[in-house]
Amino acid sequence: MTSSNPIVIETHDLTKTFEGTQALKSLNLKVRQHSIFGFLGPNGAGKTTTIKLLLGLARPSSGSATVFGQDIHRDSVEIRRRIGYLAQEPRYYEHLTARQTLRFTARFFFSGPKAIIEERIQETLELVGLQDKADRPIRGFSGGERQRLGIAQAQVNHPDLLILDEPAASLDPQGRRDVLEVMDRLRQYTTIFYSTHILDDVQRVSDTVAILNHGELVAQAPIEELLAGSGGVAYRLKLSGASQQTRAHLQSQPWVTALTEQPVNGFISWSVSVSDEATAESQLLRLVLSDPGVSVAEFGRQKYDLEEVFLNIVEGGRNDP
Amino acid sequence: MTRNSALIAAPDRGWLNGFGNLFRKESGQWWGTWQWVIQVFIWLAIVNGMLAMVLLAAPKIEAAQASHEIAAAEAAAAIQALAQTAVMVFFIFSGLAPAVGVVIIAQDALVGERQSGTAAWVLSKPISRLAFMASKLASDALGILITMVLAQGVVAYTIYKVGTGISLPIPGCLAALGLLYLALLFYLSLTYLLGVLFHSRGPVIGIPLLVIFGNNLAGLLPWLGKVMPWNLVMDLGPDRPALAVLLAQGQPLPTILPILGTLALTIIFIAVALWRFQREEF
Question: Are B190 and B211 in contact (CB under 8 A)?
């Protein structure tokens, strides 16, 4: 996914109010084609509301949005022809089997040929590993099997956009892994917009992240950018034998804005914030190693854990980690 | 992997998008399960069972005549009276018991799907909301027509003929069954409308049941009796016999106001339900 990819979802001040309470406040979002877009936020942040607005299941109180360049209200049916959707708690007709459910779903998109539709259904069952249970009524399915069926019914039309609402929330670690693997496999064919509050999952598969809190978008960036931090560039060094002199020398450099130190497993860890990335790339390590008493075990650009970023944003109510 | 280009995309049918698939699924719940058999037998037992019990008196009248306990003219009059009662009983019971059945079937159509979350799932597919609701209405209307009206009507006609020896005029009987069907459609549309307006089952079941058994209100509010379906299937007084009974016996109708009123209300209920469902959020 690159920034030149066409935009699939775009919202403009999208707002939803329920009985005087703003569930979503002027959301401005851009999702590019072929991204796996993680839509993060605590419970009640407005993630599901956004998804329902995009699908035409609810109406915006104000603002607008387009999917594939089409208006979510006026062109809802046309948009849904190109979408696959998995609800947070997927519900199906319990008396139907998995195969019948996929057949029922597929008929909304395709009128024939019957043999190829059946082939598609079989492929989709295999994709999610339900081929052995395809002809059993859904009422006997476990939570994980229901979730996999949910992905199957969302994928049966090979949509251009998959919208998944908390796809792994109710699953055990193995189920979560399976779902993430399926998402990863689908990445090459489709754009995936999914909501979650499981940060590990986002870090594993997403390329772009938006964070929603109390109905407001508080951050949106490629995940690498978010993890690198937007409060300035910083580098991390793990070293031994560092002297006060080296540290003072470094701090005297005009491009070093801060240096913090903490002991880590017998080493010293420095976090060096800089104002000039290019100079830091060429000078920082050289300066440290100019002290013959110093050994550098690790050197690299400071990365934040997504959980750290998320908590900073959500609890701090600010945009930078 | 099959490509979408190998498949034929479902055609754009405007407000009917998805109707065929939804109707097939809804009909499957009537005809692909034991539902239709159960419905036929329940109403057979209640409605035609009641009719058969009434007509059990006929062999006794014939026996009395055969043993010269009563005169032939007296027996013929008794049979006529019995036949009249039988037709009334059939339509009264058909207008009450299956009407309750209609409410019980229809109350789940929208409330059940909304509560279970299946409505939101289906509506996330490329279908129109009109098609979603129309498919349910159409399949229920068809199921009701066959199991509660036509099947019962055919059995009742046979029992009646065997019991009384009288052949009712078939066009009149069909017209009478049409009025019975109209009354049931009224309750179907009312329950659907309430299913859109309310999100819990209480009012969706309770209000139609009050209406079904509210025929006594016609005495208090005569104008109500002129527009509600009660008079289609039951007497609302000596001067207001059940219209279906008159039609079944080939007699002219004194008024068609209750027919027009019921038809108009049914259409209004469906139209408002469809309009309101378009604005529903899931």
Answer: yes
* B152/chain A closest Cα distance in angstroms: 29
Can you say whether the dihedral through the CA atoms of B127, B130, B136, B141 is positive or negative? negative
Is B4 within the bounds of a domain?
no
Task: For residue B116, give how far its alpha carbon lies from the nearest alpha carbon of chain A (Å).
Answer: 7
Bridge partner residues of A268 (DSSP): A239, A263
Total number of domains constituting chain B: 1
Output the DSSP codes for A1-60.
Answer: --TTSPEEEEEEEEEEEETTEEEEEEEEEEEETT-EEEEE--TTSSHHHHHHHHHTSS--
Contact A58 B125 (CB under 8 A): no
Domains in chain A: boundaries = 7-228, 233-303
Q: Which residues of B touch A57 (CB under 8 A)?
A: 120, 123-124, 281-282
B197 to chain A, minimum CA–CA distance in Å? 16
* Enclosing domain of residue B240: 29-278
Per residue in B174-219, pLDDT tens?
A: 999 999 999 999 999 999 999 999 989 999 999 999 999 988 777 7
Residue A316 has pLDDT above 70, yes or no: no
Instruction: Give a yes or no: residue B3 inside a domain.
Output: no
* Tokens coding A166: 């908390």
- Percent of all residues in chain B with a pLDDT value above 70, rounded to a whole number: 100
B199: in domain: yes
- Three-state SS across A61-112? CEEEEEECCEECCCCHHHHHCCEEEECCCCCCCCCCEHHHHHHHHHCCCEEE
Inform me whether the C-beta atom of residue B3 falls under 8 Å from chain A C-beta atoms.
Answer: yes
B167 touches chain A (CB under 8 A): no
| Separation between Cα atoms, residue B253 and residue B258, nearest integer Å | 11
Question: Helix (H, G, I), strand (E, B), or coil: what is residue A176?
Answer: helix
Has residue A127 got a pLDDT over 90?
A: no
CATH of domain A233-303: 3.30.70.260
- Select the residue of A58, A77, A90 nearest B282 (Cβ to Cβ): A58
Cβ-defined contact of A80 to B10 (cutoff 8 Å): no
The residue of chain B with its CA nearest to that of A124 is B1
Task: Say yes or no: do domains A7-228 and A233-303 share a fold.
Answer: no
Q: Locate the chain B residue with the closest alpha carbon to A105.
A: B125
For residue B21, being part of any structural domain is answered with: no
Peptide bond into A6 cis (omega under 30): no
Q: Which helix (H) or strand (E) holds A118?
A: helix A114-127
Contacting residues of B for A160, CB less than 8 Å apart = none
In the CATH hierarchy, which top-level class contains the domain A7-228? alpha beta
